Amino acid sequence: MKAKMNPTLMLIVSMLVFGTLGLFVRHIALPSGELALYRAVMATVLLGGYLLITREGFHIGAVRKELPLLLLSGAAMGVNWILLFEAYRYTTISVATLSYYFAPVIVTILSPLLFREKMTAKGLVCFALSTVGLVLVIGVTELGTAHLTGILFGLGAAVLYATVILLNKTIKEVAGIQRTFWQFIAATVVLIPYVMCTGGFTVGSLGTTGWGMLAVVGIVHTGITYCLYFSSIKELSGHKIALLSYIDPLTAIVLSMTVLSELVTLWQLVGGAMILLFTLISEIPTKSPQR
Predict the structure, then answer these.
(1) How far, rounded to the nearest angstrom, does the alpha carbon of residue 59 sit from its chain's CA centroid?
(2) Poorest-pLDDT segment among 100-104, 107-111, 135-139
């Protein structure tokens, strides 16, 4: 990037792109584990190229000190992707996304226990009301068992996403894009044997559309967008990051309803609004967690 881009615009663009992920995943006829692997591989190559071009370096010395945490967080990231992709397959993109965005709520309640951070009255109230919102999203029995399965996958992904966030709080020596680069490598290392043991590699069966969608998910949604995301958050306040981060789920919900014409009930919208609103309130003015 020759001229310095506006960091606010970069973050908005990255959130908009993240919000379209489900649309592309739906058109890739690959098992979730294999799709997660290719996403990790393509993103690793792109981020590695970015670090070489910008001369930010790979911080090998620091990586050695924190290798176990990087490996564990990378493994959690890879499994998180698998569960999220499964959620997209079983339920609507909007419901999967709302279930997934319960992760910051999990972080809010666990941080005081793990890091002795003070739990405020505001944090407790927001946790309680976000949980009520989640109950409203889940409690739609007329949508069938497939949707409940998708919600459970989304919540599983949220737990793994929260795990990545909490582990990242303990990684002090490696930050930003460098940390994510090594986590992508760790995710790749974990996902290769998983794919080999769960059906092997089937990417050869993809048609032209599938290959195109896969390239977009790996190159655009992961490699390029992570570069935009980390480049922008270095320049912005935590308050602004928290606000703009909610463009991602809102984009996913709007596209789910308009482009795919997926059913979203009024109570699910109310529950989703509660999750997003009270999670946002609990985060402000603290810095938004890594996606």
Answers:
(1) 24
(2) 135-139
